[in-house]
Design goal:
The chain contains 14 helices and 19 strands. It folds into 2 domains: 204 residues, Rossmann fold, CATH 3.40.50; 112 residues, Rossmann fold, CATH 3.40.50.720. It is 31% helix and 20% strand. The radius of gyration is 21 Å and the shape is globular. It has 425 residues and is of the alpha/beta class.
């Protein structure tokens, strides 16, 4: 932003003590989003009058290893371990298609068949492993949320309800369960003890095996102002430089990487034991050079993000204020974690957004955390015929606008809040 101070100022008011990877002291603020409740703890209607806890949502960047991170205010067992985790991956058609393409690709590339063994960490409701099951490839899902693991078992996906780390890895090794493919999609950010997690993967992986992990790319988060992907369930935010350093520290060499469009821009990394035969692809050097040119290992790269976030907030509130003053009705679509960061940081309540809808019955007939906006099924939109539909899972905007195309019959328009509020006719 022109005219803004681009120096990252030390901010010790809420600083986490040390970096969760390298142990260096943390003092450089990345962005302070105030306080927010846990994003997947939807409020039952019966508890609408009860208070809920809010926790600081302040991200810092380590000036030694450049890991962007939140402090750990809530242990993962409070987020995922009560058997009522609200996120079920199978309710997104585009995500299911992405998972199937992945299985087709890696099965061919690494010759996976009935004699292979695949383990997925954070396997959710079996949305991905079901594709291996259909191919006759033996699988095991590791999933801390009991309700999603139960849904996976109904699809024929063997699942264990536990958190993954070195202890779980040693147990599986003792049972002879070392995978040819060890994968995890959108789990790396959810891990507070990243060293124990990655060392567990090193222990578990078969000597000739391959690891793949997918996670949002910090470079895309910064470039497109995706601040709403910062929430308590996401402890860490990775550039390729930093994630490569973390895996190397634990004896895993990243031999390939792909840039993906999912979740606003993600990386898929491919890892193996350092001494394994997999040859590094040109993608590794190319992405390292690309990030280096951006300056991902300099404080200046992170300095303007906070002001960009504030400007996105102002733009969204300006749109909502103008719409409401003109007597327009605004509702939401989706109840994703990112939506709760957006709504709570921007101070958006029912005075701006009447309600939101979601395809998942696990979220319907509850209230969003913090904002207390009610969640209904998608049919509610066709009953009330609003003027604007604010798409909270903006990474799925094409899928949602296609599914909801009939709203244009009464002139409704879609609004996407990131990176700046934009209306789609």
């Amino acid at each position: 932003m022109t005219g803004q101070n681009t120096e990252s100022q030390p901010d010790n008011r809420a600083a986490a003590s040390t970096c969760r990877f390298c142990g260096a002291g943390l003092s450089t603020s990345f962005v302070d989003l105030g306080s927010s409740p846990l994003c997947q703890k939807h409020v039952p209607l019966a508890k609408a009058q009860e208070a809920e806890p809010f926790f600081p949502l302040h991200a810092f960047v380590c000036s030694k290893c450049w890991l962007v991170q939140l402090d750990e205010f809530v242990v993962p067992s409070e987020i995922f371990g009560d058997g009522e985790y609200a996120y079920f991956a199978s309710f997104s058609d585009s995500w299911l298609a992405h998972a199937k393409r992945y299985v087709d690709t890696v099965s061919q590339r690494f010759n996976l068949d009935k004699n292979s063994f695949v383990v997925e960490i954070a396997s959710n409701d079996g949305y991905l492993l079901q594709n291996f099951v259909q191919r006759g490839v033996p699988v095991l899902g590791i999933e801390p949320a009991g309700n999603t693991a139960a849904a996976a078992r109904k699809k024929g996906v063997e699942s264990r309800v536990c958190f993954f780390g070195s202890e779980t890895a040693r147990q599986l090794v003792s049972e002879g369960k070392r995978p040819d493919l060890l994968l995890g999609n959108n789990v790396l950010a959810h891990v507070p003890d990243v060293n124990d997690f990655v060392s567990g993967m090193k222990l578990l992986l078969k000597p000739s095996g391959v690891i793949t992990m997918e996670f949002p790319h910090l470079v895309r988060l910064i470039a497109e102002n995706q601040f709403d992907t910062i929430y308590h369930e996401h402890f860490s935010y990775f550039s390729f430089h930093t994630v490569r350093r973390i895996f190397a520290q634990h004896g895993i060499r990243l031999f390939d990487v792909e840039e993906l469009p999912t979740h606003g821009g993600s990386l898929r990394i491919y890892g193996c034991h350092t001494e394994a035969a997999h040859q590094d692809t040109k993608n590794v050097g190319a992405l390292l050079a690309k990030e280096a040119a951006l300056g991902v290992e300099t404080k200046e790269y992170y300095a303007s993000f906070a002001e960009n976030v504030r400007e996105t907030k102002r733009a969204l509130l300006e749109f909502l204020i103008d719409a409401k003053r003109k007597g327009k009705t605004v509702v939401g679509y989706g109840a994703p974690g990112k939506g709760n960061t957006l709504l709570n940081y921007c101070g958006i309540r029912r005075d701006f957004v009447d309600y939101t809808v979601d395809r998942s019955p696990h979220k319907q007939n509850n209230l969003l955390p913090g904002s207390r906006i009610p969640i209904y099924g998608p049919e509610k939109i066709f009953e009330t015929k609003p003027d604007y539909i604010l798409i909270l899972p903006w990474n799925l905007r094409e899928e949602i606008m296609t599914q909801m195309a009939d709203v244009r019959k009464w002139g409704a328009k879609f609004v996407v809040p990131i990176p700046r509020a934009k209306v789609y006719e």
